[in-house]
Amino acid sequence: MDRVSLCLCFILGTIYLSNSVGDEDIRCTTSSCSSATCDDIPEKCTRNITNPGTYMLSPDICNCCEYCLANLDENEACSVGDPSNGKHTSICGPGLSCLTVDGETDGTCQKMTTTCMNEQKSYDGRKKNGTLGQMETKPSCDEDGLYSAYKCIPGEICYCTASNGSRIFGQADYSTMSNYMNCDCSKKYYAGVDMIGRELGPHEHFRCSSNGDYDKLQCINEKCLCVDTSDGAPTYPTKSLVNITKISTDTLSCYTSKKVGEYYKTCESKYMDVYKKVQEYKAQGYNQVIGYEYPNCDLDGTYAPVQQNKTHKYCVDIEGNILTAVSKSSSGTLATSMNCKCIRSNLMSSTVDKPACLENGNYNPIQCRRGFCRCVDTDGNQYCVSGVCEYDESKKNTMKCTK
């Protein structure tokens, strides 16, 4: 059970408790903790150090006591515990897990062996040996050993990532403060998609900003409010929601448009027009409605990079203007593999040395910069082939970048 699930269990398990012996309910009030006896929290939790421990609700009735799990360091003794154990007072620190011998509950804290942690180990080893690529970056892992919220390509862009490291919606110019990106809106959207099993329309999810955080203005079921960009929480929880037709700089402080009632962006607006027409036909008893095509919108309401019609696939900018197009019938893999990541990144990046793109807007797998060439993946990240990371540009034609 990870840290988050532990905390949720305590929250959900102590809001309301029913007496298993009699019919009397036990409800937590302001006086419930007046006679509670609390244990001292671990001394390490009180130290002024980085990652001293994890504070959470105490697993006691009404959560009366302060409770902290002290973070253990690598190689310190730990226990995975069992249902008969009392309250735990320690836990392996960020990036560590309790490694035990088969059948034992006691062990030692060791570095996790997740994909992200293994990549970090590989990076550190190659850095020590002097075999790193000039544009390689060390993978960033969270405390559970999963990939952090975003990844950066030096001098180009930073983009949001899922916990498995795959690229998801949200990117920003590398020159901006990447610390402003937490990608929570984007990550929550894809978590919802995984749970529901289908993509969601603009009217079914919180709108994100272009960097994957929450848009500060949200409209849900025609009702609008301002939210915190980091977690989507209402900025003014006590204020009434505003009807979407009446949003303005007077009714919502986060509203920036000069036109009253303007929430949906161009792509969202066209999507909603089609959606409403389809719903009208369904209300009339039609089970299937054909002839309408939904535009492909990104999570911030702008046009997604890849659009298509019956004959072509094409890359567009956020306003839907065509940047490049390929024929579905004659372009083969150029059409089927089109992702437009390179051409879109070039529009955002402020760097002088912009990456080279293929005809379909994807990254050219061979990138050259200042006399040297390197191999990159479909997201633009450098990787080494057989231990070789850079080639002299004069040998560009001998490079084989396949991953």
Q: Please identify the oligomeric state.
A: single chain
Distance between the termini: 35 Å
Beta-sheet strand percentage?
15-25%
Mean pLDDT: 88
Q: Let me know the number of strands.
A: 21
C-alpha Rg, in Å?
26 Å
Shape: globular
Signal peptide: 1-20
InterPro entries: Growth_fac_rcpt_cys_sf (IPR009030), Thyroglobulin_1 (IPR000716), Thyroglobulin_1_sf (IPR036857)
Domain Thyroglobulin type-1: 113-185, 337-401
Pfam families: Thyroglobulin_1 (PF00086)
Key structural traits:
403 residues, alpha+beta, 4-stranded antiparallel sheet, 3-stranded mixed sheet, 6 helices, 17% helix, 21% strand, globular, disordered N terminus, disulfide bond, signal, secreted, Growth_fac_rcpt_cys_sf, Thyroglobulin_1
Summarize the structure.
The chain is an alpha+beta fold and 403 residues long.
Strand and helix layout:
Layout: H1 3-14, E1 17-18, E2 25-26, E3 53-57, E4 66-72, E5 77-79, E6 90-92, E7 96-100, E8 106-111, H2 115-129, E9 150-152, E10 157-161, E11 167-173, H3 184-196, E12 217-220, E13 223-226, E14 242-243, H4 266-283, E15 306-308, E16 312-316, E17 322-327, H5 333-336, H6 341-348, E18 366-369, E19 372-376, E20 382-383, E21 391-392
Domain Thyroglobulin type-1: 113-185, 337-401
Signal peptide: 1-20
Main location: secreted
Tell me what you see in this structure.
This protein is α+β, with helices and mostly antiparallel strands and 403 residues long. Among the domains are: 3-111, no CATH class; 365-403, no CATH class. Helices cover 17% and strands 21% of the residues. It is built from six helices and 21 strands. The chain has helices at 3-14, 115-129, 184-196, 266-283, 333-336, 341-348, and strands at residues 17-18, 25-26, 53-57, 66-72, 77-79, 90-92, 96-100, 106-111, 150-152, 157-161, 167-173, 217-220, 223-226, 242-243, 306-308, 312-316, 322-327, 366-369, 372-376, 382-383, 391-392. The strands form seven sheets. Strands 18, 19, 20 and 21 form a four-stranded antiparallel β-sheet that branches. The chain has a three-stranded mixed β-sheet with strand order 3-4-6, covered by helices on one side. Strands 5-8-7 form a three-stranded antiparallel β-sheet, with no helix packed on it. The longest helix is centred in the C-terminal third of the chain and has 18 residues, at 266-283. It is globular. The model is unreliable at 1-22 (pLDDT under 50). Residues 1-20 form the signal peptide. It holds the Pfam family Thyroglobulin_1. Residues 113-185, 337-401 form the Thyroglobulin type-1 domain. It is found in: Secreted. Keywords: Disulfide bond, Secreted, Signal.
